[in-house]
Amino acid sequence: MTSAAEDFFARVITDRLKLDLLCYFHRNPFTIDYAHGTAQRLGADVQLVTRSLEELVQAGVLNVRQSQFDPSRPAVYSYTRNPEIRALVEEVVVQATTEEGRNQLLQRIAQK
Fold first, then answer.
1. Which of 25, 35, 89, 105 could in theory staple to 50 by disulfide, Cβ–Cβ 3.0 to 4.6 A?
2. Angle at 102 between CA 47 and CA 3, to 5 degrees
3. What does the pLDDT look like over 49-95, one tens digit per residue?
4. CA end-to-end span of the chain, whole Å?
5. What secondary structure does DSSP assign to 2-14, as a single string?
6. What whole-number distance in Å separates Cα of residue 65 and Cα of residue 34?
């Protein structure tokens, strides 16, 4: 990975769930989903997914939209359109696609 992607990874990807979410949205760039649906797809706890999604929104990786017509409906999340962030994410995802690369990334997360 480039130094920019390394910095991005160190700053944004602080746990395995965020890595899984990063890979999921990058591989499915047109996905628009609720936290509950995303949690089901990943087989993860909805509260943990919601927190991680919000942190990825803060990092600029995801967008969040609340219904204008019914604020009681849950927010929906989608992948950023920002090409610079997408390029950084792609570098991380490329490394995560091999077992060795994913294990290296998970080891780095565990060391944080």
1. 35
2. 100
3. 999 999 999 999 999 998 777 777 889 999 999 999 999 999 999 99
4. 18
5. -HHHHHHHHHH--
6. 10
